[in-house]
Amino acid sequence: MSERIPVKNVSKVEVHQPRRATKKRHSSRSRIYVRAVKGPLETFRRFFGLFFLALFAVLPFIQYNGQQAILLDIGEQRFSLFSLTLWPQDLTLLAYLFIISAFALFFVTTFAGRVWCGFMCPQTTWVYIYTWFEEKIEGSRNKRMKLDERPMDWDKFWRKTLKQVCWWAVAILTALLFVGYFTPVRQLFIDFFTFQTSFWATFSILFFAVCTWGNAGYMREIMCTHICPYARFQSAMFDRDTITVAYDARRGEARGPRPRKIPHDALSEKGLGDCIDCHLCVQVCPTGIDIRNGLQYECINCGACVDACNGVMDKMNYPKGLIRFTSEDALAGGTTRVFRPKLIGYFVVLLIMLAVFAANVIYRVPLEVDIIRDRNSLYRETNEGLIENVYTLKVLNKSQQRLTYTIDVQGLPSYDLIGNNTVTVGGGEVATLPISVATDAYNLEDAVTEIQFKVSTTSSQGETIQVTEPSKFLYQ
C-alpha cells in the first residue's frame, strides 16, 4: 500500500467562446467554434459518414416482392427484412444481434480507440452536416465568432434565419426517413406533406426532428462528453497498445512560436521542440480539448487535429506525425502489440456469437404452432365408444407467402381426426383451427399418452416446412 499513483499535472483546456462585454455569471456551456480543416483523414471521415448517411436514406425505399424491403412494423409486431420476417417469438435473434454489436464495439475500441465515435457515429455525421451549413451561411470560425458578438442587425438576422431553415429542413427529412423504417415510407412522405398523417406518426416525426435539431445544432459535444455512456466506459477497454490520437511530447516540447527560417535541425540548439504552439489542434477539435494535454475521455478519435498539425508541419518543413494515431507503448519508444489476450478474447466471442446468430437464421423454421387443450373436460366418449380429446391449434405463418398446411397426429396407432386436417394461412397471419382426436380405448395403455401434432407444408420454392408440437391425450 506504500506505492503512490503517478499524477500528471495538465493545463486547463481552452474552450473557444466569443468575447462578450456582458456575460452571464453562470453559463450552462461555453460554445465551441470549430475551425474547418482539410486533409486525408478529414476527407475519408466525411465520405465514410456520408456513405452510411446515404445508406440510411436509401434503404427504406428499396422494394422486395412488391413491398417495402425493410419495414419494422411495431403495430403489427412484424419486422420484415427482405425475405426474412421476424415476430416477437424471434426476439432471441435481436438479442444475438445486440450482443454481436456490443462485442464488435469492444473489439474495435480495444484495437483502435473511439473510431466509432469519430468516423461512424450518427451524431458526428449530423454535426458535420449542420456545421457545413453554418460555415456556408455564417462564414469561417472567426467570422462566426464576430457575428455572434455583434448586436442583431439585418445581416445577422437573415444569416441566422437561413441557417435555422436549413437545420430544420435536415431535421425533418431525417425524422421522416427514420420513421419510414417503421411505417410505409412512400405513403408517409405523401401524407406528411398533405397533412394527412396520423397523430402518432406526426408526433414521432416532430419528436425526432426536434431531437436531431437540438443534438446536432446545439448540444453537439455535450452528447459526446456528458450524455453518451460510451465515453465513460471506454477506458475499461483501453490498454497501452490501443491505437489512439496522441501528441508526441518528446518531440514537440518545448513548444513555442518561431520563424520559418529556423531549420528543423537547429531547434534543439534553440531549446524548442516541433510544436509551434499555433493552437490549430484545439481550434479544429469538435469537443474543444487540447490533445497536447494527453489522452482525455472527450477525445472521439476523429483525427481532425492530426490533419491540422500535419498541415502546419508541411508549412514549417518539419516531419509529419507530431500528432498521430499511435499507442502509448509506441510513444514511449516500444512497439505496439496487435495480438494480445483481451483483443483475441473479444474476437473469439464475436466469432462465436456470429456463428450462433447465423445458425439461428439458417435453421429458422418460418412456422409456429401452439396447441391448446380443451379445459372444460379432460375427455369424452363418443356414440361409437371412442375416446375423444378436443384441441385448438394456432398456426402462425411466419413467411411472406400464403401457404396451405396439413395436420397429422403421431403417437397413436390409429385415430380419427374430427375437423379439417388442412388450413390455409396468409403470410404473417395466424389461423385458429379447432379439431378433435378420437381413438379406441384399447389403443390407450396409460391414462396419459404423449402425442405430437405434425403441421407441414411445401413452399413455392419446393422447400418442405414442418413443425412437430407435443401434447397429451387423456383418458380416465
TrEMBL record:
Keywords: 4Fe-4S, Electron transport, Iron, Iron-sulfur, Membrane, Metal-binding, Transmembrane, Transmembrane helix, Transport. Residues 266-294 form the 4Fe-4S ferredoxin-type domain. Residues 1-17 have a biased composition (Basic and acidic residues). Pfam families: Fer4_18, Fer4_5, FixG_C. The keyword Electron transport applies. GO terms for cellular component: plasma membrane. It comes from the Bacteria. Residues 1-27 are annotated as: Disordered. InterPro entries: 4Fe4S_Fe-S-bd, 4Fe4S_Fe_S_CS, Cyt_c_oxidase_cbb3_FixG, Electron_Trans/Redox, FixG_C, Helical_ferredxn, Ig-like_fold. Residues 18-27 have a biased composition (Basic residues). One of its GO terms (molecular function) is metal ion binding. The chain crosses the membrane at residues 47-64, 93-113, 165-182, 188-213, 343-363. This is Cytochrome c oxidase accessory protein CcoG. It comes from Salinimonas iocasae. The gene is ccoG.
